[in-house]
């Protein structure tokens, strides 16, 4: 049973009055649902890859302003009851009533409210905020609260493991229970003795890396078993552990194994049949680095590794060499990330109860071992007024409402283990955060990577956390502080003063952030005053989570702390179908920047057609930065992301879920610089991902312009290519191959489907025919491929350049698709996509292939090493001898050469886009670094330190 506390107080402290709740959004005597226009919709969700129906529920009821995307995600993921039965929820009203009702009744029963009238106001305000998408609780709340299931409300968990076999086996079990419920967990393995130390029996210990294998296998098994979400886990090791070098290299070595398996023809695609033989793939790895270690790196000094059993130094390493090793491993496979131990523990409110040694899988929740945190995120764009000012008063009131509700949830919540339940109830950790920061900044004319943008973000974050802790102190005055407060009173007050001092040091840039900062200052002053009297109800209040699924539920343009993903968006329509729209923040931004309506319309039309702002009519170059996004022609540089994290970190109890993405040509030294700056700027955790560093990355970015950006295969680029010599003839002339001609055959597999390409050449090396075999002889597929081969071969002989076919057929997407056994072409979106990439590598010159974005593995490696790929192009070993077509002999003419439209095509036709990611690819001619959703087949987009699916709301493992 959960212990509850009524209005009579706790531990004999006497009677306390409850909270008075003010109306801010609702009207007395009017139910919040009655102020909303509701409509009935049909939800039918399909897998874009094969057209199969994933989910269907007709006649669901939602507010008219809600997008069909938000409707689909909520109906498919959060409605409870078997589909097709009377018990199935069918209206958002039922869902919100189920959840909000539990919060209100629990608060009423436990003395949170001064009167029943205050409880009713709380209930109405909460329901109003949820149906108007002002904020959202994390997914476990929607899954579990108010149902017959256990009332689990937390998404983030931290476990502990000691240096005993019993504890290690308990770790396996506890992690499995958490994964089964669709949540994630993190653990620090540094208490386990190293493989260089002895057991009590005299034998040699296995070491933590060895025990990671069992936990990884368990996570992989549970993930494949179809839980609510895939298993997500974090494994942390302290930098002074004797096995740290083995830990650092663990996943990089496995990545080498994946490459070897791939080259041998095994299926090592994400979810492939043979990937299960590869270890450590289900966890994020992070190294806990100390200030002492980082100072040793600065000084290029030695650093001692200490025994887990005696505490003595058992080995010495060069700190700079070990730091370089971490950066190199992360460069190779994206692991390990870093967690800055002393920074984390310097902001720790309860150090007398234990150090902070680990985090949840996405690194935003950092607190005591065997604890959990429930999350909620505020939609910042909802507080931008029509006059483009930030509504401070309503933001403060909503923050009060959300913090109160979140604390109530701990009172009725269930937990996966008794230890986690005890710790969470004793410290009541909360994680309020926000989404849509990137959209808010753009709409108000602030560049994400600018002093003004960082000042606005810092001021809002300070206001949110200051208000949250002030409300926590007020709640403590009603139902008492958290149980562990008395033991940690001095430390908690010290951290509150640190937050307030950071707020005092915040330097404002413009009127908007100055107003928000002034309000934040008042909140921190009141927080310290009330907290000194009452203490605080919560050991932790705020962090920044990924907000993947709930971000889509709130119709947010951007998630968590992220900038806008792209300037063009893919929007589903209620009546079926979809349309392309320009980000609605753009017209607001242009208006705030002083542009007239005619200019705004022209710029928006240009963005709609091109997907970027470069050379937009009338747009001044100094304003380009306002429209920089995570991807696209102008993208935010890596340090822009790091500096934004550093701006808001002093105003968060926890940390920030975010991965800094860098281009493929980034160096190991770049990783060292980013990790060092993360420590210097006061971050708590940092992860860096280099494009194309993992074999299992389903799609990688083609590079052009020296590899600095994702290649934009545009008409303008194509026009720069040397034009083929044209022979004036009245009609195309077929140039037949001789009876005896050189040819080559390539065998291949794409997504498990086997096939063959036989290409015949003219004696002077120009490609003249190609035959493609796929499927059994006599099958319909084999017949179609034969006919397709004949058509292509005849066209080649009539002079249609191979480049035209490469432009038309690469990036064409249909099944079978996936991993290939070709080391030069890691992934193919279809058999046709693979075939014409292979033909391009074998028969086109480097210059032509570079313009088309088709490079060999060796050329990509040269690019990453800073060399020009053309220097190695002649040395590339492939399945056949590469040779440029004999352009002087090509005969062009007729519709095949002149009426096919521009020489270059988008990576994917706009009509085939199913998400904003795919739409951006179609607009700008490159493939995005993001996996395909395993549920619906659409391209996912980055969300914090993982990926979220815009189509169905699934995530790649974040909470």
UniProtKB/TrEMBL annotation:
It catalyses: a 2'-deoxyribonucleoside 5'-diphosphate + [thioredoxin]-disulfide + H2O = a ribonucleoside 5'-diphosphate + [thioredoxin]-dithiol. The keyword Nucleotide-binding applies. Pfam families: Ribonuc_red_2_N, Ribonuc_red_lgC, TSCPD. InterPro entries: RdRp_reductase_class-2, RNR_2_N, RNR_lg_C, RNR_NrdJ/NrdZ, TSCPD_dom. Residues 893-907 have a biased composition (Low complexity). One of its GO terms (biological process) is DNA biosynthetic process. Residues 700-722, 884-916 are annotated as: Disordered. Residues 154-689 form the Ribonucleotide reductase large subunit C-terminal domain. Residues 738-842 form the TSCPD domain. Its cofactor is adenosylcob(III)alamin. Its EC number is 1.17.4.1. One of its GO terms (molecular function) is ribonucleoside-diphosphate reductase activity, thioredoxin disulfide as acceptor. CDD domains: RNR_II_dimer. Residues 43-133 form the Ribonucleotide reductase class II vitamin B12-dependent N-terminal domain. Transmembrane segments: none annotated. Keywords: Cobalamin, Cobalt, Disulfide bond, DNA synthesis, Nucleotide-binding, Oxidoreductase. Belongs to the ribonucleoside diphosphate reductase class-2 family. Catalyzes the reduction of ribonucleotides to deoxyribonucleotides. May function to provide a pool of deoxyribonucleotide precursors for DNA repair during oxygen limitation and/or for immediate growth after restoration of oxygen. PANTHER family: RIBONUCLEOSIDE-DIPHOSPHATE REDUCTASE, VITAMIN B12-DEPENDENT RIBONUCLEOTIDE REDUCTASE. This is Vitamin B12-dependent ribonucleotide reductase. It comes from Nocardiopsis mwathae. The lineage of its organism: Bacteria, Bacillati, Actinomycetota, Actinomycetes, Streptosporangiales.
